Amino acid sequence: MKVKNKTLCRMVENQSYPLNIININPEPIGIFTLPIEKHLNYKKSAQLIEKQAPKELRQHFPTEKYTAHICNNYNQNIFNQFQTLSNLKKDLIFMILTYIKTIGHTCKDVVINDAWLNNSSKNSTLAYHYHSNSYISGNYFINFNQEIHTQLNFLNDRIIKYNSPNITTPKSPDINTLYNSKTITLNAKEGQVFLWRSHNSHGYSIPNKGDKRLTLSFNSMPKTCINSDKRYSFSVVD
Ligand SMILES: [Fe+2]
């Protein structure tokens, strides 16, 4: 893909040298906003599930002391357990297919292979992680108050390299850019759905200031995976 090089121009000392900073390897994060009536309906259903889910569908992991999960086990999926969320599932599938198409790929159908609820209390954090066995992952912000609930962040993997030697220079104290920030924060609002390619690390380290941060996380993959020269494939069933 050819990129037009007129993105940024800076002055160098006292002389005007054009400087072009070109972004390569960009990472697409999809942000959808549900219509408010739909969102409020889904929120009501999710909050009811949160109150009434039986014990066997609930998880509490020692690594996430202040977060309770529902259907966060390999053999559970919130959409299989609760039919009240069936329209939400349809909306998410539509969003995932739209996202894949918009970034220039083709995919006829996807399966949401995992979906679960996260109810985070005050002081919760989420260690940075990524999702394996998934192609597109996402987060639906069901009960999310920007004043008291911590935003989801994405790790800037261009400056965090765990396994390779590299030369680093100190970060400027005054200048924050996409290139020197360890994490990238997007300003999520309640009712929004974020989508990303599943290998992207995400989490949050600033403790949540309030209770009831409710999100729905999910993993998805194409129903049929075909390689680029169409010689090999496999299919999964829903
Ligand atoms: Fe995650």
The first-level CATH class is given as: Mainly Beta
Helical segment tally? 3
| N- to C-terminal distance | 35 Å
The portion of residues assigned to helices is 10-25%
Largest sheet: 7 strands, antiparallel
Which small molecules are bound? Answer: fe (ii) ion
Radius of gyration: 20 Å
Can you write the helix and strand succession as a string? EHEEHHEEEEEEEEEE
User: What is the arithmetic mean of pLDDT?
Assistant: 91
Would you identify the CATH architecture? Answer: Sandwich
Please provide the count of β strands: 13
The CATH topology is Jelly Rolls
Number of domains: 1
Please identify which CATH superfamily we are dealing with.
q2cbj1_9rhob like domain
Using the alpha-carbon principal axes, give the shape.
Answer: globular
Strand order across the largest sheet = 1-9-6-11-4-3-2
Low-confidence stretches: none
Structural class: alpha+beta
The fraction of residues in strands falls at 25-35%
Descriptive account of the structure:
The mean pLDDT is 91. 16% of the residues lie in helices and 27% in strands. Strand 12 and strand 13 (233-235) form a beta hairpin. With 238 residues, the chain is of the alpha+beta class. It is built from three helices and 13 strands; from the N terminus they run βαββααββββββββββ. The radius of gyration is 20 Å and the shape is globular. The strands form three sheets. It has a seven-stranded antiparallel sheet with strand order 1-9-6-11-4-3-2. The protein has a single domain, classed as q2cbj1_9rhob like domain (Jelly Rolls), CATH 2.60.120.620.
